[in-house]
Design brief:
Length: 137
């Protein structure tokens, strides 16, 4: 028999902030689908160029306003915001019924960070991004 070894170089991606999984004062199990994780997953899919996956995190209302090709064009025109990210820092979120907000930062390997603020709508049992602002600081 033969052995085949696949040799590849491991390049670690940005670190995801899991701190919001354990909301202060909560005795329940952590929710991996909370808004802080959803926004980080969206940003990471965008950074990797997985535009269809990233687009899937948007709310139906936002998708109606921005088609996939418009989303991709916007991401590509702002590509500097998604390069060289070393980590995401989202310490918490607020939920009010079927709406939520989260804010935090994307930190860059070269220094600096971008402030990220997002609003969410609950669609079924998942949070979807209804609005997002990314501002380099």
């Amino acid at each position: 028999y033969n052995f085949t070894f696949k040799i590849s170089r491991y390049t670690p991606g940005p670190s995801i902030d899991l701190g919001s999984l354990f909301k202060t004062g909560s005795n329940g199990l952590p929710d991996p689908f909370n808004p802080s994780i959803v926004i980080q997953e969206h940003l990471e899919a965008t950074r990797r160029g997985s535009y269809r996956l990233a687009y899937g995190y948007l709310s139906a209302g936002l998708k109606a306003a921005v088609p996939l090709d418009g989303f991709i064009a916007n991401v590509k025109s702002n590509s500097l915001l998604f390069r060289d990210i070393s980590g995401y820092r989202f310490s918490g979120y607020e939920v009010n019924g079927t709406a939520a907000t989260a804010n935090g930062f994307a930190e860059y390997r070269t220094g600096g960070r971008s402030r990220i603020e997002a609003a969410f709508a609950k669609e079924g049992n998942k949070w979807r991004i209804s609005e997002m602002n990314v501002v380099f600081q």
